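Entry 14. Structure prediction run on the chain below.
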Amino acid sequence: MGTVAVVMALAAPAWAQMVDPSCKGVAVEWPADLKAWGLAAVPVTAASTPAGAPALTPGTPARVTLAAKEGVTLAVTPPKPAGEKTYAGTVAFTVPAAGPYRIAIDGGAWVDVVADGKSLDSTSHKHGPNCSGIHKVVDFGLAAGSYQLQFSNSPAATITVLVVPPQG
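Output returned:
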């Protein structure tokens, strides 16, 4: 592996997972709200039940280890049935003030933000910036409070996630 590839893998963990050869040597144009994606991700092990979910810090990327779906109980059943060999888990986060929050992930997992035992409706879905390693970004309008973030139907046992607080 060349020096540039090693530096990029350390600077942005998701970079090392890219499979698109057209991204080799391409500089990512980061929107202000997603620049934290390039920081070192904090390792976290997701809970296999809604109780005791570890807390993520908005604005800090986390590398979340999920469990095989058979050993996980989620607070809300996702609308999409789980595939044969998929992974799931739950983490938590706290919103200090109401506003638009984004959930950015590097894989194809299903994402639900859960409050009071109910999945909240997202306000939009989109892909991350080209060549960033961000697979998708899901937006939610959230009130101040505590939330669970559940992942399901992930083809990978680990997923990088960034809870993006409102900008401004």
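DSSP finds one helix and eleven strands in the chain.
Filed with the rest of this week's runs.
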